[in-house]
Amino acid sequence: xxxxxxxxxxxxxxxxxxxxxxxxxxxxxxxxxxxxxxxxxxxxxxxxxxxxxxxxxxxxxxxxxxxxxxxxxxxxxxxxxxxxxxxxxxxxxxxxxxxxxxxxxxxx
Length: 108
Prior knowledge:
Blueprint: H1 3-10, H2 18-78, H3 86-104
Helix pairs in contact: 2-3
């Protein structure tokens, strides 16, 4: 293509495919926007899944902590206090109260 033909096509004159180029550009832009919308939707779904997994991990950690506290409380409850001094018994009772408050919270 010569210089003059290129000028004519650039200025919208001559036998260039101006309208066809606009249509193909419009189609390309539409396809791009559709791909972007689909990618955005997949990203939102991914974030939702990630959030649910994170919530589940937090719940598992809370339940494990609660299980450990319950086990400790059961051990303290079944402990023989007959051989303990009064000071040891008082600390034992304080430990039981503390664990009960952590386990039951405001319920009691």
